[in-house]
Amino acid sequence: xQTLVGFANSPRLRPALQFSMSILKxxxxxxxxxxxxxxxxxxxxxxxxxxxSYSWQPDVxxxxxxxxxxxxxxxxxxxxxxxxxxxxxxxxxxxxNVPPFNYIGVSKLSCSACHLWIKSYNEQEERxxxxxxxxxxxxxxxxxxEGGKPLSECMSGKVSSEYYSYLLESGLMRLDDDSTPPHTPxxxxxxxxxxxxxxxxxxxxxxxxxxxxVAAFSH
Length: 219
Ligand SMILES: [Zn+2]
What we know:
By secondary structure, the chain is mainly alpha-helical. It has seven helices and two strands, in the order αβααβαααα. Strands 1-2 form a two-stranded antiparallel ribbon. α2 crosses α3 and α5 (112-124) crosses α6. The longest helix is centred in the last third of the chain and has 22 residues, at 149-170. The chain is elongated and about 65 Å long. The relative contact order is 0.15. Residues 179-192 and 202-219 have low confidence and may be disordered. The structure holds zinc ion. Zinc ion is lined by residues 78, 110-111, 113-114, 139.
């Protein structure tokens, strides 16, 4: 209310309140996510993330296969991502020329996947959006909004990077065990070990993978 009153008293912003207001319901979006169906397929994903084989990977593959049965899941696109995609997509109306507010009001903190998707979106697009933050948990099912390949690849890189950080924190991998970090925009090949450790310290506060499980995202 204070913001609205301030808005109405601002000579610069007051004219905006002379327009009529309307409420639009953002259409519900879902994505069909293809899940790995065998231990080998999960094992390949884990090897791609870690870029080598580890003795713990068969056990984790079994855990993932049990946790995510079935070949396909219809996953909802969470509301903040749906809204960002909706207001970023021109619909031929006069609102296409009106830039939206870049702060997305959400009643709860965003999940990790939404937080990373918004971060990826902001890196790929000219316009930037923000929510009040993330609670750092991974909420399955989660569907990625339809988008271009660069956005999907950026998102995949960030999820892989978070999982890699989790493996380092949990002791399943060590930086000195002759492994190579996955290439993502945040993992420059020129980064020295201290820079990598610094990045891991930064993500430590928000990485929270339940039970060592990693979600699969369809491209
Ligand atoms: Zn979410």
